[in-house]
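Sharing in case it's useful to others searching the archive later.

Someone asked me privately for the predicted structure of Olfactory receptor, so I'm posting the question and my answer publicly. Question first, with the sequence:
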Amino acid sequence: MPNSQNTTTSSIIFLLTGVPGLEGFHIWISIPFCFLYATALSGNSLILFAIITQPSLHEPMYYFLSMLSTTDLGLSISTLATMLGIFWFNAREISFNACLSQMFFIQLFTVMESSVLLAMAFDRYVAISNPLRYSSVLTDLKIAQIGIAIVTRGTLILTPMVVLLRRLSYCRSHVLHHSYCFHPDVMKLSCTDTRINSAVGLTALISTAGVDSVFIILSYVLIIQTVLSIASPEERKKAFSTCISHIGAVAVFYIPLISLSFVHRFGKGAPPYVHTLIANAYLLIPPVMNPIIYSVKTKQIRKAVLKVLRSSMAKS
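And my answer, the predicted structure tokens:
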């Protein structure tokens, strides 16, 4: 028992895993991952800079987009060091405290992304159903309050989940099955009862992404009802077009999340590298795709980004 308790201290070292079975190809595998990280970091930074510097984008819709870009940057940075460290230097070791910190921030930014997508759905509903009151409903103060609520919600929900991992004893293998710290992964290494941890983790998932997805669907039901009540086909098309980018962002967030859940539950016979690649895609696809979706589908963002790029090229 003493040995078991000693392994609950911060002296524990976990070993992260790259792509199982493909260790000899890690350098080559790192090339597309580097490209994805560069795309995510540069794309979201560019959109964030454009929104901050362009007065024409100082509107509720773009403030929410800046929140989405911020969470995508945080999500990318949270996994960057460990993932590329494994691929480049085989740096697999991570301390218990560092593991919990990484896990917390990955989960926090994921929950924040889900919350921001819900806020954006509400933004689209207000803009379409009551355009004359749009600016008075979503004031700068209200948007700031929504932003604070998003961060507070994620922190309050996730803190117990991470803290409860400290009460466990880790006397089994310390090898994790991902290139970052994943809550179910860490729990599986415990040799003590994890039912409370599992219940808290499931509650956190249902009360964040689960609840948010329900309200996003409800928002779009109301949006569709409102749009169908518009007499002019041209106006209906215009109203729907303002939602395309957001629908794309919702899809690239929830489809990888659902895929990861299905693979973990039903894909036990799949090769280990399939689990790893889907888990990595789950964290990388939204930060990579969101800037592309909004730059392609939103004319104002496309113009602002091109303006920023031209300005920087002219200065250089």
